[in-house]
Specification:
It is a single chain. 48% of the residues lie in helices and 15% in strands. The chain has 719 residues and is of the alpha+beta class. The protein is built from 29 helices and 22 strands. Bound molecules: glutamic acid. The site of glutamic acid has 9 residues, from strand 20.
């Protein structure tokens, strides 16, 4: 038994020492930490080509869409940007209708005038990043409470931010790294006029749909193109007719020469969130609360939404983007829970924690500093169990992920309501408040089908009642019991029939003559209000636990880094710009199942299934396949579609450029694979793969499928 234990530890240590491709690295540190290794692997760039404050570098062409969530990159001197189809689906959908269905047929602006504006869409580029740990933590000391510490950090961050942006149009943030052991200042330039230029039909961009999502082999060109516009002075500006295409200092060159297995590749982007320092108890919490609840909630809701989408084109278009947003992380959570079990992630973390405890107990000073942190983390996690459960239900269903839509929409009346109650800090004209409500309602009602939302609301309310402690039932449940004999369906029916938030004409009447008392009587408004009350009540109860948790996690991460002084650690993803490097590679998925590292257009034809919308191949693509006119986009006469790398990526990297040894664009990152869905917690070198569209397939679609030659011409494409 003992021997097996030691062998296991040695294996673990061995794996972490031979594997070099894990890591989401901060750009200012790559010279010091990664350059030698990358050049050994074949990289022909210098650190200054990737991140420089003196001359144009890669950092200038990689942008975060909407302040994080997706990445896009500049690919022409006229501000053309490339990202995933699933990152632009909101915009593609918002311009679609049954008569002009860009989701089904694709959209291509054949001139600049046809490019479609998207109010609210933004892209931000890093101007500079700076380690400000000493400045932020300079006045912080051990005797401080968490609240005092936080307020000190906020104070110094504010000063740093205002110094950084003074006299500029830049924005800045100070972000914690390594759970608050270090801090970085990030200065960004944000552009606010981003127009839709082109998108393939879903039958190409989302070919394989939910069935193929998070899996390999893939056969879709998950891309769309947009263009950044600036004011006539070249500076970021809100949408205006006189705006001009952005003139960047540099843009990504595109390579037609492709890749071979084992070639080095890089990805730069804005990964959103990883949990690489989670404890075994934290992983169990993710598995049993966050993932389990999400699977149950979204599974039920998605079936109901799909039922209605199948019946009407109008509803299909209205719910396309909402559906794929919900289904994406629904399937992710299923896959993650399976991978956590299959790869024994909790067990592996427990072994690491045993080693940690052993290391702590070996020295008295360590015992004093870190002796009880694991226990503290574990006990907070167990104490907050019921609250986490209720929070996850409230957030998934109503307040954050909006599985039920209308309760979130009702918050559009909160500013008016609170102002009338006398709680506004800054008094606004009622007309201004109503205008804002009307603006929000235009988008809401455009994509709203009350019958669908009502069905989902009934099912969700039922699930809430069955799975959350009554202690955390919002006030609306007393109405259900008192006035509707506990009949949830009856209550929901009343709500949708009466509320001003479920019907555009009732809503319009209200905004034309706003009466504060009407909100008191509105069942959706009051329902939403009581949900927020419950949410706040939980957060208040949670506060002390959260402070203990944050402090313990910070020392735990510090201790783990102290424990391995010779190892280089990278901070968890937090939507800051990162680089990951690795190779193009295949993998052995399971016993006797090995996957090749690229797919081809022949595979699209093989997957065609006329009975399933998601596996329908456009006639034009079939014709192009038959004609075999792939030049100059093929390799060995074959049209490659997607390929694999072992780059370390996560959500937020969607749309990130995949580059070759010369820093040229060879692909577009868009997904991860089923065998490593626990990769956000532990990177598994044998299994973790990022899935990329071959840039040549994208160009083939733009050029030969869409005939958008003007876009090909403005790009910098070479062999
Ligand atoms: N699976 C996602 C999709 O193709 C992308 C990956 C992500 O969101 O991280 O929709």
């Amino acid at each position: 038994m003992k021997k097996r234990w030691i062998t296991y530890i040695l294996q673990l240590l061995l794996v972490s020492s031979i594997h070099a491709d894990e890591g989401m690295w901060l750009l200012p540190l790559i010279q010091e930490l990664n350059m030698d290794k990358m050049q050994e692997m074949g990289l022909e760039l210098e650190a200054g080509d990737i991140y420089s404050l003196d001359h144009p570098s890669l950092k200038d062409v990689i942008g975060a869409l909407d302040y994080g969530g997706c990445t896009a990159e500049v690919i022409s001197s006229d501000g053309l940007i490339l990202t995933n189809h699933h990152c632009g689906v909101d915009e593609i959908q918002s311009h679609s209708s049954p008569a002009q269905d860009y989701l089904t047929h694709g959209f291509w602006a054949m001139s600049r005038e046809e490019e479609l504006p998207n109010p609210g869409k933004t892209i931000s580029f890093v101007v500079r990043m700076e380690d400000v740990t000493e400045k932020v933590l300079g006045m912080v000391h051990l005797e401080m409470t968490e609240v005092e510490r936080e307020s000190e950090i906020d104070k110094s961050s504010e000063t740093l931010i205002s110094e950084a942006v003074e006299g500029t149009h830049y924005e800045a943030v100070v972000v914690p790294l390594y759970e608050g052991n270090e801090y970085y200042l990030v200065v960004m330039e944000t552009f606010k006029d981003v127009r839709l230029v082109g998108a393939p039909p879903e039958s190409i961009g989302r070919f394989g749909g939910d069935k193929d999502n998070w899996e390999w082999p893939r056969h879709n060109a998950d891309f769309c193109m947009m263009r950044i516009y600036t004011g006539p002075d070249g500076k970021p500006a809100d949408y205006a007719l006189e705006n001009i295409p952005y003139k960047p200092a540099n843009w990504l060159p595109i390579s037609l020469s492709g890749y071979e297995k084992d070639d080095i590749s890089l990805v730069l982007g804005f990964p959103g969130r990883t949990n690489r320092y989670a404890t075994s108890s934290g992983i169990r919490e993710i598995k049993e609360i966050e993932n389990r609840n999400r699977i149950k909630i979204r599974g039920e809701a998605l079936d109901l939404i799909m039922e209605d989408m199948g019946k009407s084109d109008k509803v299909r278009i209205q719910y396309a983007a909402k559906y794929s947003r919900l289904s994406n992380y629904y399937k992710y959570s299923i896959g993650q829970n399976l991978s956590l079990d299959r790869l024994q992630v909790i067990e592996k973390r427990t072994v690491q924690e045993d080693l940690f405890s052993h290391w702590v107990s070996a020295e008295e000073m360590r015992q004093e500093a870190y002796g009880d942190i694991l226990e503290e983390i574990n006990s907070v996690i167990s104490e907050r169990n019921m609250m986490e459960n209720a929070l996850s239900y409230l957030e998934e269903m109503f307040l954050l992920h909006k599985t039920v839509e209308v309760f979130d929409f009702a918050t559009s009346a909160f500013p008016f309501f609170f102002q009338e109650l006398g709680y506004a800090t800054e008094k606004k004209e009622t007309t201004e408040l109503m205008d804002r409500m009307k603006q929000r309602s235009a988008i809401f009602f455009r994509d709203y089908h009350p019958e669908t939302d009502q069905k989902v609301a009934s099912a969700m309310m039922q699930l809430y009642a069955e799975n959350v402690e009554p202690l955390y039932f919002p006030g609306l449940f007393s109405t259900i019991y008192k006035d509707f004999d506990g009949d949830i369906d009856k209550y929901i029916d009343h709500l949708y029939r009466k509320s001003l938030f479920t019907d555009p004409s009732r809503f319009e009447k209200f905004t034309a003559k706003p009466k504060f008392k009407k909100l008191f009587k509105d069942p959706v408004f009051m329902g939403s209000f009581t949900m927020y009350q419950t949410y706040q009540q939980i957060l208040d109860e949670y506060e002390e636990l959260e402070e203990r948790f944050v402090a313990a996690r910070r020392s735990y991460v510090k201790a783990v880094r102290d424990m391995y002084p010779d190892s280089i650690f990278y901070p968890d993803a937090n939507s800051t710009l990162r680089l990951s490097y690795g190779t193009v590679c295949d993998y052995l998925a399971r016993d006797a199942v090995s996957y090749d590292y690229y797919t081809t257009l022949a595979g699209v034809m093989e997957k065609e299934d006329l009975r399933e919308r998601e596996f329908t191949v456009p006639a034009k693509l079939k014709q192009l396949f038959e004609e075999k006119n792939f030049q100059p986009y093929c390799q060995d006469n074959t049209m490659r579609v997607c390929f694999l790398t072992d780059l370390d990526t996560t959500g937020g990297n969607s749309g990130s450029p995949v580059l070759n040894s010369r820093g040229e664009l060879i692909g577009l990152n868009f997904d991860g694979n089923w065998e490593s869905m626990s990769g956000d917690i532990i990177y598994e070198p044998e299994f973790q793969r990022s899935i990329c569209v071959d840039i040549r397939y994208i160009l083939f679609i733009v050029d030969k499928f869409a005939g958008a030659h003007q876009l090909i011409e403005e790009m910098d494409i070479h062999d």
